[in-house]
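note to self: the first set is below, dont mix up w the second
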Amino acid sequence: FGAMEGGGEGQRDDDEGNLTPLQKERLQAALEERTNEGVSSCCGALVTAGFVALAVGKFDGAGYSALWIIFPVLLFAGITLCCLGYCIFGADEKAYREAEMNGGFGPDFGPAAGQRGPGTAGGADYGSGDGSGGGGGGGG
């Protein structure tokens, strides 16, 4: 289209050779963002069209079960729940400790903030209550 703008045939907007690497990177990022937006809107429209087609077919008297109309929603919900369950229950204490040591929880969490993770040594202190941090509880 650039050759058609400006009124002359054979003219080409050859700004690509004059771009800095930063400008090229920004253009590439903008192109990827627009591509992702286009693909996601297209996929959303296809899924919606599929739902509508299944519902219209069922209302028209098709022989399939109504469960097939909501099956994609149930499938997506099931996969999402499986992924969330793995994220919650699949993490082991070793990964938790590594993240704690590397500062992966942010500035408000960790030994500097006085918080400890589950099962770590030096967790909650149920000592004598005098603030000394020592256990025992016996006093005199």
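second set (the one i keep forgetting abt)
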Amino acid sequence: MIVVIDQNYLGCILQCRSFSSSADLSDFINTLPNGRIIALRATGLKDAALPRLIGFQPPPSDDLQLIYIGQLGSGTSPQWTVCTTEHKGALVEIDCTTSDNSTYKLRTEKGVA
């Protein structure tokens, strides 16, 4: 599942989609403008090449779910970029602190898309 968030109005979800292949995911990502914030949770991305996801690192195994929160574009990844793996179905909670010292939490739960 991928969620596209407006970088100017944080919290404004622009699109939310699921894909059956990494090729379809890559094609979709290539239609998005630079600067968009991406939240991605997926499995089966071991051999995926997603160069527009700054800081993206493919998981070592297709059996692990990838959690990525970052920004589209080129250059260096923002300091708040998260790219990690967890076992399928694991509860994941990520704390993100913005520059105005507000704290936001993005949380995914087992069985919730």
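remember for set 2: Helices lie at 22-29.
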